[in-house]
Amino acid sequence: MSTAAPVAAKTVPLLIGGQWIEPAASAWEEVFNPSSGAVIARTPLVGAAEVDAAVRAAAAALPDWSATPVVERARVMFRFRALLEERFEEVATLLTREHGKTLAEARAEVNRGVEMVEFACSIPALITGEILPDIASGVDAECVRHPVGVCVGITPYNFPNMVPLWMFPVAITCGNTFVLKPSEKTPLSAVLLGELLAEAGLPDGVFNLVHGARDCVEALLTHPQVAAISFVGSTPVAKIVYETGTAHGKRVQAAGGAKNHLIIMPDADMDQTVKQLAASAYGCAGQRCMAGSIAVAVGSAGDPLVDGLVNLGTAMQVGASDPALSAAAESIGMGPLIREDHRRRVASYLDIAAEDGAKIALDGRQAAAAQSGDGFVLGPSVVDHVAPTMRVAKEEIFGPVLSVSRVGSLEDALALGDGCEFGNGAVIFTRDGYAAREFKQRFNAGMIGINVGVPAPMAWFPFTGWNRSFFGDLHIQGKEGIQFYTRQKVTLTRWPRTDESHLDPVWRSGR
Ligand code: NAD
């Protein structure tokens, strides 16, 4: 963070009540193009005053928007979806520019986000209530869903497009208004989403955008007019958000970090497994909460697995992913990390692992050294013979470092999951149905893959992290998302027969 605003970089605007505003913030965060290391924008780090203005704008827009028929609210999402499709390449390229993931990864991210908008388009069919006539004699019961009010989204840097789209399309179509606080490291995609929402005809104040870090988040968590908070980010912050938000009477869903195990049984198709493992561990340069982090080789799987990973990792092309900077960007295998300090932090785990007694089978610093330019590139690494007590086995690295642990049996692999504080994803590669079933039933994580390297649920299913990978009850995505953004109202009705003397005689005789 710098306190002096760089003059040349574009200021990232806030969106409050339909107005784009460049605030006079006293602190700023630089936004980098990770492919070149250049500063491309500056994010204002705003505090309580701007948050209050945004929440008030959302609260002011709430009565009209919540009274707008749900089919009309969904129509805005249909138009928003059409714009995302029309501007698909622009959205994906901006994502690559501010985050560093490859264009193929950016396109995949936008597709996952579009699916969330499609899900939101179907909300009129999903939000219907229930009725039971004659729950007691002459009494009818009905249960309908109401919006909760002003909802807040606080999102991480690693999916600047998709994670906001996990939240606001569902919240808004359910009749709520919204304040988004994207990551200060990658705020530009959120600005583009705000522009497209306005173009789609969303009324002013229904979607608002603020930027900042800790102070901004604290102001959102404690604002009396905020009803619900969706958070995605690291576990320590997820815990703070959950505890502070609920202490202030808000409903909170807070998704945190991860340490995902990938179990390789000796009977697995090794060629396919190595490809899927590499895609899982090195996709988005390992900056995914569903990234494979520890490959657990059972029995004889260890040597062929490590050989295959080292060969594949050595051949992987790494470098700049921004097509404006490199003609090779379209074919690049792995892009840079988000920041130089993050690259250093991730690389430091290679020294930590070696000091703890693990073997560095492939060192990503060598691929990085072969690169020209100032991008934040780090090649893929493989760390072999990792024991459960080592820091690389316990801590979320969030970069392209895949640990390999060697165990004797499936039971040993299941025990590693039991000892893990996180519980996002876990995968097994096998041809054995019994092993797969045991794994599915017993592994200590909420999202399971069987011969699927990244078992991230898509829009229609909840994102079901367990343990310290999630704080709250109702998860993001799927029908749970609709439950989170609505509250139920039950009405019991009785219409006793009345004295009919005042009724029209013709109508009365027909009763
Ligand atoms: P982060 O926790 O540093 O930041 C997330 C958000 O919290 C940002 O908007 C940031 O401004 C805000 N924030 C940061 N520190 C704060 C503080 N002390 N108080 C209040 N707010 C604060 O996470 P990140 O580095 O942007 O993203 C990476 C993390 O997100 C990883 O741990 C990854 O596993 C996790 N993640 C989880 C999921 C999931 O679904 N479980 C999905 C994507 C990312």
TrEMBL record:
Entry keyword set: NAD, Oxidoreductase
GO terms of biological process kind: L-valine catabolic process; thymine catabolic process
E.C. numbers: 1.2.1.27
Enzyme class: oxidoreductase
PROSITE patterns: ALDEHYDE_DEHYDR_CYS
GO molecular function: methylmalonate-semialdehyde dehydrogenase (acylating, NAD) activity
Domain Aldehyde dehydrogenase: 20-490
Keyword presence, Membrane: no
A Pfam family hit: Aldedh
Annotated PANTHER family: MALONATE-SEMIALDEHYDE DEHYDROGENASE
Name this polypeptide is given: methylmalonate-semialdehyde dehydrogenase (CoA acylating)
